[in-house]
Amino acid sequence: MNSDSDLQIAGDILAVQHLLQPAKEHPSTVAEFAGLARSIAADRSQWAHLVEYDATTRWYHRLRTGPGYEVWLLSWVPGQGTGLHDHGDSSGVLTVLEGELTERTEKGTRVLASGAQRVFAPGYAHDVVNDALEPAVSLHVYYPGLTDMPMHGDRCSAPEAQDVVAA
Ligand SMILES: [Fe+2]
Q: 136 alpha carbon to ligand 1 midpoint, in Å?
């Protein structure tokens, strides 16, 4: 304790709850949702054992739900993709956990390597595909939870294009 200060706290500071910042119960900003995705990505014990690869359809698993948001884990074998779609009223954060995904939008094509993140607002349209030769795994946070994934036109990149699953 600093003896030059007039202010001294006796006892356990953690017992004085009203002096502490309340812990956030759930993310509420873009940065916090991106941070949530990064923290899950960094802790493989939360997701690695759950990943499955399915050659017949993109595999997906709802990893977590919170107040108004959902976190989905997806796997992509080479060639699997979504087709061009948006996410209805949901915003989202896409994070590549393993492998590499290619995102196509009306503005161009972007290769997303492991660790890459894309944040998108409601109405954002993209086509996501695994154009690589190795499987890929990705994490998707949606706020609010994904209830609609409208497909756009006939720009489909894979037979799974009519799937209405998270992406
Ligand atoms: Fe998507």
A: 15
Class level of CATH domain 32-151: mainly beta
Distance 32 CA to ligand 1 centre (A): 20
Question: Token digits for 81?
Answer: 């993709």
| pLDDT score recorded for residue 8 | 72
Amino acid at 44: R
Give the strand pairing for 136-143 and 91-98: antiparallel
**Against a cut of 0.85, is the pTM above it?**
no
Q: Name the burial class of residue 76, with classes exposed (0-12), middle (13-18) and buried (19+) by CB atoms within 10 angstroms of its CB.
A: buried
Which tops the pLDDT comparison, 101 or 2? 101
Q: What's the gap in Å between 93 CA and the centre of ligand 1?
A: 9
Domain residue ranges of the chain, discontinuous segments joined by +: 32-151
